[in-house]
Amino acid sequence: MSGGTAVAFAIGLPLFGTILILLNDRYPNIREGITITTSICLALVVFGLVPEVTSGGRPGFVLAEIVPGLPIAFKVEPLGMLFAMVASGLWVVTSIYAIGYMRSHHEVQQTRFYACFAIAISSAMGICFAGNLLTLFIFYEVLTISTYPLVTHSESKNAVKAGRTYLGILIGTSVAFLLLAIIWTWFLTGTLDFTPGGILKGTADGPILGILLFLYMYGIGKAALMPIHRWLPAAMVAPTPVSALLHAVAVVKAGVFTVLKVIVYIFGVDTLAGIGQDDWLMYIAAFTVIAASCVALTKDNLKARLAYSTVGQLSYIILGAALANSLGIIGGGMHIAMHAFGKITLFFCAGAILVASHKTEISEMDGLGRVMPFTFIFFLIGALSVIGLPPLGGSWSKWYLMLSAAEAGQIIFMFVFMLSSLLNIAYLMPLVARGFFAEAKDNAKILKETHSEKVNFWNGVRIGNIREAPPFCIFAMAITSTGCILLFFYADKIYRLLAPVAGIQG
Question: In terms of pLDDT, which residue wins out, 324 or 103?
Fold first, then answer.
C-alpha cells in the first residue's frame, strides 16, 4: 500500500467501522468486536507509515480543490505522525476499557456511543494528516460536533447543560477567532499550506502578527487556555471512556497539536521569536498552569480534579510553543504523548473506582486501595508520570521544557514548571495515600459488600477479600500504565521523530 493510500485508509477506516457498528445495533458482541477490530486495523495502518515518515517521506493526497489554491489536502509530517500514533494506539485501549465500563455500568445508547467515538477518531486522523489550515479547520469542527453526543450521553439535565457549554465555547471560539485568523492569513499570504519556517514570515509587521497570534490561540478553544477552559470541566458529566477521549485520545490533544502546527508551520519559530509579540502568551500559559493546579486542589470529585489537572498540563505545551525555540517544540510535542498515557491511566482508574465501589469523591476513598490494589497501583504510576518523576515518560517532556525556558533566558518559567510539579504532587498523591494508608470508617462495610455482592465477568473480579473492576478495565489500565514506563526508555525515538519539526539536524 502506498503512503497516500494508507493516509486515506487511516481517515476512512473509522467511518467504515461506524457504518458496521450502526448496522449491528441489536448484536452487542458483534458491535464491540467491530469496534476492536477497526481500532486495531487503524493502528496497524498508522504505525505502518512511521518508517516512511522517519526516513524523510511526506505521503499524502489531495481529496478535492474547493477553489483554486484551496484544496482539501493531506500530508503526513512528523508532528502529525506522533499525534496519529497516540490517537490510534489509545483508541484500541479505550475500546477495550469501554466494553467493560459501559456494560458493567449499564450505560444507555451504547451503539450511538461507539459510532460517535469512531467518527471522532476519523476526525482526529483528518486533523493529524491535514496538509493545510482549511483541511484542519474542517476536521476540527467535525470533531467538535461528533463528540457532542458523547458529552451529553446520559441525556440528563446536567449533561444537556454541559453539552451547551461544550458546543457553545468550542464552536463560538472557532467561528469568532479561528476562522477569522485563517481568512486573514489567506489574505496576507495567498496560501494556507503548512510550510516549514512558516508562511507568515515577512508578510506583516509585528503588531499585526501579534493580533493574529491572539486570534489563533483563543480560536483554538480545545487547547483550554484560560479563560475559555470551562467547557473541559463541564464535560466531565460524560462517561469515563468519553473523558479519556476528551483528555488523552483526541479532543484536547487536537487543540494543543493545532497550537504547535500554527506556531511551527504558519508563524515559524524564528519569526515568532523575532517579533517579540508572544510574551503575553507565555504569561497567560504560565498563569493557566498554576491557576488550574490550584483549582484542582479544591476539588473533591476525582474527575473534576483530573479535569483541572488537564487544563494546566495543556498549557505546558502552549508555553513550550510560546518560548519559540527548538527545545520548546520538542518538549511540547513529547508532552502530547507523555500526558496522554499518564492522564488516560488516571481517568481509567477513576472509572474503575466508580464501577467497582460507586464512589466519586476523594474523601470517600479512604482505605479503598486495600480493596482495589491493582487500580490504585495503576493510578500511582499514572500520577507519577504526570508529576514528571523518572523512570516514567512525563519526566522527559518536563525536562525539555525546563531546558527550553533556560535556553530562552526565561528563568521564571523554570520555576513555574517546578511549582506546577509540586502542585501535581499535592492534588494527585492524597488519593493514593488515602487509598492505601487511611483507615476507612466504612471499611467493614466495603469488605462485607466485597463478600456479598454478586461478581461476574462484567461486574468485576474478586480475589480473596479484594474486589476489583471488570477484567476489561483492569487490562486497559495495565496497558496504559505500562506505556507510561516504556515511554521513559523510548523517549529518544520521539525526540528523533520531532527533531526535523524543531529544526534540529542530525
Answer: 324
